[in-house]
Design brief:
about 725 residues, alpha/beta, 7-stranded mixed beta sheet, globular
Length: about 725
C-alpha cells in the first residue's frame, strides 16, 4: 500500500482529474494563509491549505475553503454599472470600463477644480490589501482625506507602537512563549493582522499557560488558566492593576528599566493611582485574580500578549494599546525570543513609500478633516468617519462632494448607521468597487466589479509586520472583474498622474521588489521571502523613538498636547458615566464578537458560510432572559437612545447577567430589494459616533460598549 502523504497533490490530480494546482495566498480576511488551488475545466474546483506555508502550515478556515463559492456566486457583479434611477432604486445599466473610469475621472477633476482636492474622499475597508494603492492615488491627487477602518483597527496599534518603541511587536510563536495573555481578541476565530489561530493552538499544546481577558466565556477563556472577566470598557484600569502588582512587587525587568526605559518615575506615580481595591471596583475583577494573573505573566519567560481590535474600538483606544505594550516591555519580553519581536521586512519599497505620503503638499495635509482634534491619527494620515459625514451633511469645515469606496460597506460597519446613510444619500457623486451590490453600493452612481484574491497577482502581506512577503498568484479571470490595484493604476493615468503609474500593475510589483534586485516574475517562482530575524536589537541601537528609549512617557504625545501617560476613561455610556440613562437602558451592550465564516459585512451570500449562521444572534444571560420574558430563539428588540434592531436570542450563561452581546454588520443579500434589510439587524443603528465619545488622540469610535434595553419582539412589531 502506498504510504500516506499529507496533502498529496499528485494523487489528488490523478484521482480527481485536476488540470493544475496553483500555490497562492488567501485573502478572505486579513489572510496570508498559504493555499493550493486546484483547477479543473478552467475553473477553481478545490482549495486546500498549503502545508509548506510558514504562516498556516496547511491549515485553512471556512472562509478560505469557500472562496470559490464567492468567486462564482451568481449575484456577483462582473461588469461595471451606472445608476439610471434615483439613489437606492436598484436601477442599473451596464457600461464599459472606459466609460466608467472616464466618468469617475471627469468627476474627480471637476470637483478638484471647483472645491479643491480635499472635497474628494477615497475610502477602503479591510480585506483586499489595496491600502497602499489607494493612498498613492489620493496623495498624488492632493487630498488628505482617506477614510479607513484605521481609526479603530490596527492603525492605533501601529501608531502607538511607533511612538513607544519604533515599530509593532509581533509574537514569536515559533519560539514557544511559556505564557500567553489573550486580550480583546479571539485568534481561533479571527485572524488579526499578523496572526493565525494555528500557532497559538500549537503553543498551548506545547504547554504555554493562558490568561484570557474577555467579558465572555469564549472557547479560549474556557481553556485558560486564568480568566479575567472584566466589565466591558475597563481595560486600561485592569492593565494598570496588573502593572501595579508588577511594579510594587518588583517583578519587572530591572535591567531593561534602568537602561532602556524613558519616563519611569512619572509612570510609577501614575501606576500608584490604581491600587487593586480601586481597580476591582472599576473592573468587577477580584483583586486576587488580578494579582495572580500579573504574577503569572511577569514570571513566565518568555511571555506574550495576543491582542486584538476589541480594545481599539473604545474611547480608551490608544491608551489601551500603550498599556499592553508596557506589560510586554517591563516584563522583558520585547524583542525576546518567544516574546514579541520587532521584525524586519525584506528590503523592498514599503507601504508608506508606495503610498506616496511624502508627495502630499503640507498645505493640503493641514486640511485633513478632524486633523486639529485627532492629532495622533492625523500624524498617520487617518481620519475618523464622522468628519466626512459632517462635511457632506453640513459642509463644515468645507464640503465633501465625492466619495470613492473600495472594499468598504460603511452603511453596515460604521457607527451611527442612520447618519452614514443620510450622508451617502446626499453626497453628490459616489463610486464603489466591490464584489456585490451591497447596501452601500446601492447608493452609488457607478459600481465597479472587483476581483477576488483568486483573480489577481500581488505581493501578499506586503503591509504586515511579521517579516514575510508571499506571492499571490492569479488563478482565473471572471467576467470583466479587475483588481483594485489595476483599476487604480488605470484611473491614476486618467487624472494626470501618468508618470507615477505603470502600463499595468505588474510594473508596480516590479517597483516594490526593485530594491531586492528581483522582479515579480522572479518572485512568483518563490514560496516566500522573509526579512532577517535578530533579537534584542535595541541593546545595540536603542529604540526608534525621539529618546532612543522605550517611551512609557511619550514625548510625542506631550508635544501634541496630550497626556504623555495612559489613563482610564469611562466609556460614554456605562452604569458609572451615565447612571440616569442606565435606569432606562439597564444592560451593557457589547458588539462585534467575530463569527466563523464572516468577515465583517462579507460572505452572507456564500452558501457554506451562511450555513454556519442563518440569523443574527444576540446573547443574553438566562437570568436576564427570564426577567425580560425572553426565550431561546425568540426575536428580540435591542434598543439604544439612537434606535432599535432585531436579533434572535441565544441564552448564554458565560457572561455577567448585566451584559448583552450582539453580532455586527448583518444585512440580508437574499432580500432582493435595494436596501437588502440594512436597517433590520444592523447593530450600528444603535452605536454612537459623537466626537466626545471618541478616543481623544486617535478618533476611534466607541462602538464596542454602550447601554441598551431588550424585550421580546411583539407580534406585528418590527424594528
Amino acid at each position: 500500500m502506498q504510504a500516506f502523504k499529507h496533502s498529496n497533490v499528485e494523487r489528488e490530480m490523478e484521482v480527481y482529474g485536476f488540470e493544475s494546482v496553483v500555490k497562492s495566498h488567501c485573502r478572505m480576511c486579513h489572510g496570508g494563509c498559504g493555499v493550493l488551488v486546484y483547477v479543473k475545466d478552467g475553473k477553481v474546483a478545490k482549495i486546500a491549505g498549503d502545508p509548506e506555508c510558514p504562516i498556516n502550515h496547511g491549515t485553512l478556515c471556512s472562509k478560505g475553503l469557500a472562496s470559490a463559492q464567492l468567486a462564482y456566486h451568481p449575484d456577483r457583479l462582473t461588469y461595471p454599472v451606472k445608476r439610471i434611477g434615483p439613489k437606492g432604486s436598484g436601477r442599473w445599466e451596464r457600461i464599459s470600463w472606459d466609460e466608467a473610469l472616464d466618468a469617475i475621472a471627469e468627476k474627480i477633476l471637476d470637483y478638484k477644480d471647483k472645491y479643491g482636492a480635499e472635497s474628494i474622499v477615497f475610502g477602503y475597508g479591510t480585506g483586499r490589501e489595496n491600502e497602499a494603492a489607494i493612498y498613492r492615488i489620493t496623495n498624488l491627487l492632493g487630498s488628505p482625506n482617506v477614510l479607513t477602518a484605521g481609526h479603530f483597527c490596527y492603525g492605533p496599534r501601529i501608531s502607538t507602537s511607533i511612538i513607544t518603541m519604533g515599530t509593532n511587536p509581533i509574537i514569536e510563536y515559533e519560539g514557544f512563549p511559556q505564557c500567553i495573555m489573550m486580550w480583546g481578541n479571539n485568534v481561533t476565530i479571527s485572524n488579526p493582522d499578523c496572526y493565525k489561530g494555528e500557532p497559538f493552538s500549537v503553543a498551548l499544546d506545547a504547554g504555554a499557560k493562558l490568561i484570557v481577558v474577555d467579558p465572555r466565556l469564549t472557547k479560549p477563556a474556557a481553556r485558560a488558566d486564568i480568566w479575567l472577566q472584566l466589565r466591558p470598557g475597563t481595560d486600561p484600569a485592569l492593565a494598570y492593576g496588573m502593572l501595579n502588582v508588577i511594579v510594587n512587587e518588583e517583578l519587572y525587568d530591572k535591567t531593561f528599566v534602568e537602561n532602556h526605559v524613558f519616563g519611569w518615575e512619572p509612570f510609577v506615580k501614575r501606576v500608584n493611582e490604581y491600587p487593586l481595591d480601586k481597580v476591582e471596583e472599576i473592573t468587577w475583577v477580584p483583586k486576587a485574580k488580578i494579582r495572580e494573573a500579573a504574577r503569572l505573566f511577569a514570571t513566565s519567560k518568555p511571555a506574550a500578549i495576543q491582542w486584538g481590535v476589541a480594545i481599539e474600538q473604545q474611547i480608551n483606544c490608544a491608551d489601551n494599546d500603550r498599556l499592553l505594550m508596557f506589560l510586554m516591555g517591563l516584563t522583558g519580553n520585547i524583542d525576546a525570543e518567544g516574546g514579541q519581536v520587532l521584525y524586519k521586512t525584506p528590503p523592498i519599497v514599503n507601504v508608506g513609500q508606495f503610498g506616496a505620503h511624502a508627495m502630499l503638499p503640507v498645505e493640503q495635509a493641514q486640511k485633513r478633516l478632524g486633523g486639529d482634534q485627532f492629532r495622533l491619527a492625523s500624524r498617520f494620515a487617518i481620519i475618523t468617519p464622522k468628519v466626512v459625514w459632517d462635511a457632506i451633511l453640513e459642509e463644515k469645515p468645507y464640503p465633501v462632494k465625492m466619495l470613492f469606496f473600495i472594499s468598504s460597506n460603511p452603511v453596515m460597519t460604521r457607527a451611527n448607521a442612520k447618519e452614514v446613510y443620510r450622508a451617502l444619500e446626499k453626497v453628490e457623486f459616489m463610486a464603489v468597487s466591490d464584489f456585490f451590490l451591497t447596501p452601500t453600493a446601492e447608493l452609488a452612481d457607478i459600481v465597479l466589479p472587483a476581483a477576488t484574491w483568486l483573480e489577481m497577482d500581488y505581493i501578499g502581506d506586503f503591509w504586515k509586520r511579521h517579516g514575510y512577503i508571499l506571492p499571490r498568484r492569479k488563478v482565473v479571470q471572471i467576467g470583466e472583474c479587475l483588481s483594485d490595484h489595476e483599476m487604480l493604476n488605470r484611473l491614476g493615468k486618467k487624472i494626470g498622474q501618468e508618470q507615477f503609474w505603470w502600463d499595468n500593475f505588474e510594473g508596480a510589483l516590479d517597483f516594490i521588489l526593485q530594491p531586492m534586485g528581483i522582479t515579480w516574475k522572479d518572485f512568483k517562482q518563490m514560496d516566500y521571502l522573509r526579512g532577517p530575524v535578530k533579537h534584542y536589537k535595541y541593546k545595540e541601537s536603542g529604540f526608534s523613538t525621539p529618546t532612543r528609549k522605550f517611551e512609557l512617557y511619550s514625548t510625542i504625545l506631550e508635544k501634541m498636547g496630550y497626556d504623555p501617560l495612559p489613563q482610564h476613561r469611562e466609556v460614554p455610556e456605562s452604569p458609572v458615566s451615565a447612571p440616569e440613562l442606565y435606569k432606562e437602558y439597564p444592560y451593557i451592550l457589547i458588539t462585534g464578537a467575530r463569527q466563523p465564516g464572516f468577515f465583517h459585512s462579507e460572505n452572507r451570500q456564500v452558501p457554506w458560510l451562511r450555513g454556519l449562521h442563518k440569523d443574527p444572534i444576540v446573547q443574553i444571560h438566562p437570568d436576564a432572559a427570564t426577567k425580560e420574558d425572553i426565550k431561546e430563539g425568540d426575536w428580540v428588540i435591542i434598543e439604544s437612545p439612537r434606535g432599535k434592531v432585531r436579533q434572535r436570542a441565544q441564552l448564554f450563561a458565560g457572561m455577567d447577567p448585566r451584559i448583552v452581546a450582539a453580532q455586527h454588520a448583518w444585512w440580508f443579500p437574499e432580500n432582493k430589494d435595494p436596501g437588502h434589510g440594512w436597517d433590520k439587524s444592523n447593530i450600528n443603528i444603535l452605536t454612537d459616533n459623537a466626537y466626545d465619545g471618541c478616543d481623544p488622540a486617535f478618533g476611534a469610535t466607541n462602538i464596542r460598549t454602550l447601554l441598551c434595553k431588550i424585550y421580546p419582539e411583539k407580534k406585528g412589531e418590527r424594528s
